[in-house]
Write a structure and sequence with these properties.
The protein is mainly alpha-helical and 137 residues long. Helices cover 68% and strands 0% of the residues. Helix 2 (14-29) runs antiparallel to helix 3 (45-64), helix 2 packs parallel to helix 4 and helix 2 packs antiparallel against helix 6.
């Protein structure tokens, strides 16, 4: 089970998608906070929720459709920058920073070629039992 999870995680931009989903949750959740935490926003809260939902969608698309990683990375970075102005300083800067980091990680991720993957798995194979190895002297 752990091996399958590791293989799935390494075959897509996992960390970029995670940071993007967290940024979207941060930006989306702040307008829905109680009034004691946030000022009354009115219609200004709608773009915040929409931007947060789009960022969550981009993070999920990076996980489940990694061939769209370039588009997801660019859209995530642009929305994170727009959230700085349109959404409570981008979720009090936390959402913007996480969004820019996640978008950059998604955009920069490249899949490993099958030959390099096979070489890496061969190098990571467990060594032979030291007790079974004999030395000639």
């Amino acid at each position: 089970m752990a091996k399958a999870w590791r293989r799935w995680r390494r075959s897509r931009p996992f960390w970029g998608g995670l940071f993007t989903v967290l940024a979207g949750l941060e930006i989306c959740a702040l307008p829905l906070a109680p009034l004691k935490v946030m000022l009354h926003q009115g219609v200004a809260g709608i773009p915040s929720v929409l931007m947060g939902l789009i960022m969550i969608l981009m993070g999920l698309s990076a996980w489940f459709a990694p061939h769209y990683r370039s588009l997801a990375g660019i859209v995530t970075t642009l929305i994170a920058c727009a959230a700085l102005v349109l959404s409570n300083l981008g979720g009090f800067l936390i959402g913007t920073v996480l969004g820019i980091l996640g978008g950059g990680l998604i955009f920069a991720w490249r899949p490993t070629p099958p030959a390099a993957r096979a070489a890496a798995s061969a190098a990571a194979a467990p060594a032979a039992d030291p007790a079974a190895v004999t030395t000639e002297g």
